[in-house]
Amino acid sequence: MVINILAGGPEELLPDLTEYNTESEVWVGVDRGVFHLLSRNIQPMMAFGDFDSVSERELAFIESKITNLKRFKPEKDETDTELALNWAVAQNPEEIRLFGATGGRLDHLLANVQLLFKPLSQGNFTKISLIDRKNIAYLAGPGTYSVEKMPEKKYISFVPLTLNVSNLTLQGFKFPLENRHISMGSTLCISNELISEYGTFSFSEGILIVIRSHD
Fold first, then answer.
1. Is 2-133's fold the same as 140-213's?
2. Which superfamily does 2-133 belong to?
3. Given this model, what pLDDT does residue 124 score?
């Protein structure tokens, strides 16, 4: 099972959601993201939020369409997106895709990147991706990973999110590396490209955010 979560970020940054709308995938709406899904004739299984970003008329429409709606007060410890992601992780899916979580307010973007740490720190290695019109980003812990060339997103960057990332090795890339140590703040691994259909990256310590993107 794959769970797709649509948060309430700027609509103009969303990719074509119909490309991800198959019978095997479950949709979850967050706040205004619920309205965006319904407007695209995509039926969410669950909805989360305080719904302070929709009008009364839009909320009435949402309530008429959604059975499993979890409404919360605006004053709470978790963000709406965090509540939805916690639910999704608990379902033990193969993958989670998070849309509408970039752009707009910078604090929201940074908070959503931070949300990806929690499952990883608890030993849950479900792949969770942030996806918008130009980017796909996910976290990776120590290990060896295969990546496939994506002509529509030719750039691939590796950004350390911990003080140090040890023994980073890149194979099949335009700019290969072998057992390099990179620190938080390094731009060494920005805008690399695959030269083969597949490449690999590996490291022994730390956490990376992997970003596939295009101009």
1. yes
2. Thiamin pyrophosphokinase, catalytic domain (3.40.50.10240)
3. 78
* Domain 140-213 = CATH 3.30.70.100: no
Query: Three-state DSSP class for 112?
Result: helix
How far is it, in rounded angstroms, from Cα 186 to Cα 100? 27
Distance CA 23, CA 6 (A): 17
Which of helix, strand or coil describes residue 200? strand
pTM: 0.91
Residue 108: which pLDDT band, with cuts at 50, 70 and 90? confident
Calculated CA dihedral for residues 98, 21, 126, 111, nearest 10 degrees: 0
Beta-carbon contacts of 202 under 8 Å, excluding residues fewer than 6 positions away, are 143, 144, 145, 167, 168, 169
Q: Could you tell me the residue ranges of all domains in the chain?
A: 2-133, 140-213
